[in-house]
């Protein structure tokens, strides 16, 4: 299937729309200047790629990240003509990448908490704060009611979002996907990179002076469609998304592998998917951050791509490092490179060190860094690179709008049928229930999940369910454990459990992928690091690497030697379903033969404190799903092994469960709201349609109800309208596990594997903000 790009939009330091950005990039004009919107205490540089045209009031009504995203998304939609396309809103998806989201809102909330106490904070400041809430806000603003995904692989997030947007269209879950990324300038990132000592005191100088990064902000979006549909509606096709590659270095929490093996594999994987090799690449839009390690490693990787130096340049040299938006903005720049047949230069600052370094690069001739002006060149294939914290690598292969006339240099792997991939292993913990078998017993006995209580302020304490720390550490390498925060420890523990219980050999792990799902990520670590910034004017450098959402995935890859495709999905409580879908798609595309999917969330004090600001959300006693008692938060982790089950590379492990259908839908009511049952019902029906069955064929429904009346009622109404058979059982595991957040769908799948009762099961997934994702599984 050919996926084409029919629209794009972006905003960043050199322009408030794509034409102005392009004009300034090819003119070699930097947008980097003085930071005027982020506090300076504890910050080692005042340089920033700030969007000057976007004012920042003291008390903004909408977070800066949203205002950036709205501008770029509106431009992309208009350029693609989506308003007149005839697409139904429920068939339009949103695939978003972000590292920070509405972090500025979170900072305001924490400042008030620290200065006045939690009881004087404003709940409204938390509505936009979770990463998935940014997507919920954009969906409401633009009436997007299709699948809604959020990715947070640090500075590869935008590229991963585009890759997963490709998969949503390719697998028929959406007709068109708005895929991209956004991030604002924020104190958290300035303080964090300062704590590591990697901010440049001057304009960053990628590939030349290489003395540190300059942070930037912005947003970029592409409109992805099937080619036949786009041409039928008369859309102007500007480029093709030919393929993507994802990989893990499994080397270090922050530094790239100096050998560049993971980065090179991501590029080669993207090209293989496109039926190309390094000889076909005309231009590389480099990661080009300006740090010595990143620049040196990337240059080594590009040199290995083909024998003759390929032209490359760094957009970050003029706009700064826009973190989660970087891959998306650079993908838009890559599309415009194809469109204009022109390569923008790498900005080389006028200082002697940068100029002399560039002259030395040119004289050596081993790489072709475009500088000293734009270059006109015939460009048919572009590779856009994003290499992130945690060793997460993502590359996109983009091509000219017309298909190549020649036979592909490399035969792309055939896409496997869905039934060729199955679940062959499951492991999980939920609070005090330390294994899948213990969870099953707890559900059978209707156990009370709470293990302890958390006091938020005087007279306000709440039950939670947590695992024993000593048990989590058992069997893990103590040297690795020292680097873990709570989220990383939970993820590593359940991965070890999966590997041990299902006999996964070391040789099988090397090429294995890892897709991690989390709703709120390392919230405890973020609170601690940012708390230090706000109170002492300095953040702890030991904490900062674990504040990124994909840190846990990086730790798991390092601990167990996983080098395959990796991504981190932060779509709220439904994240586990999205992670399973992406994992299945990477196997179907031939990127690997097996993927471990981990869904993990904390129930830390900060999370309890945040939810306590919403009256009635948390119970003070026992949670009874369906009775509006309030919920019990549970820390939980689940790991699922997906493997190819026939053909070359097939697993010898017998399937435990097969995923017959995936359904995703979204409401457009905005963050913090549930809306009615319509979107939930659409997700159920989409999963049933993909499985080729009707509701009367279901043996069991694994409910997502957890005790919050407004949420539980949406599911109840949707199931009533779906029309279940009289024989269909309803299983409500959260009565015994508590609210296990992103792990809930995987635990539901695990219960079906443990019980092996026969028949098909609907695993219901819904979350605050209106993102609904469900599965149809069978033994």
Automatic annotation (TrEMBL):
Gene3D superfamilies, per database record: 3.40.47.10
GO biological processes: fatty acid biosynthetic process
PROSITE patterns per record: KS3_2
Keywords for the protein's UniProt record, in alphabetical order: Acyltransferase, Transferase
EC class of the enzyme, as a word: transferase
Domain Ketosynthase family 3 (KS3): start-end pairs: 1-400, 418-779
Superkingdom: Bacteria
Record-listed E.C. numbers: 2.3.1.179
A GO MF term: 3-oxoacyl-[acyl-carrier-protein] synthase activity
Pfam families xref list: ketoacyl-synt, Ketoacyl-synt_C
Protein name per the record: 3-oxoacyl-[acyl-carrier-protein] synthase 2
Source organism: Acidipropionibacterium virtanenii
